[in-house]
Amino acid sequence: MYTVFSTFDVPPEKANEVIDIYRNRSRIVDEAPGFVDFYLLQNDKNSGEITVQLFFESKESYLEWVRGEDFKKIHDLEKKYPDQELAQIVPKVGQFKVVAR
């Protein structure tokens, strides 16, 4: 299994807005070959720190997703988000091979 974290900081007063965006996400990734699960995490001590966590069956299935048209479509929509402060945020991305459960 393979997991990817995208962590970003938003102004704390906009955290709920971002959470709502992800609660109402398109779910296109859910249909990607090898996709396993999605989690949205909020730091317990810093409400503006949000992490998106995706699980895929393998690194290869994740890379297929990233190289695909649906990935590009989703991320192009983010750039057009009306709140330009949120649209300009660049996440810190980490990629991990799951080695134990």
TrEMBL record:
<keyword id="KW-0503">Monooxygenase</keyword>
<keyword id="KW-0560">Oxidoreductase</keyword>
<dbReference type="InterPro" id="IPR011008">
    <property type="entry name" value="Dimeric_a/b-barrel"/>
</dbReference>
<dbReference type="GO" id="GO:0004497">
    <property type="term" value="F:monooxygenase activity"/>
</dbReference>
<dbReference type="InterPro" id="IPR050404">
    <property type="entry name" value="Heme-degrading_MO"/>
</dbReference>
<dbReference type="Pfam" id="PF03992">
    <property type="entry name" value="ABM"/>
</dbReference>
<protein>
    <submittedName>
        <fullName>Heme-degrading monooxygenase HmoA</fullName>
    </submittedName>
</protein>
<feature type="domain" description="ABM">
    <location>
        <begin position="2"/>
        <end position="90"/>
    </location>
</feature>
<dbReference type="InterPro" id="IPR007138">
    <property type="entry name" value="ABM_dom"/>
</dbReference>
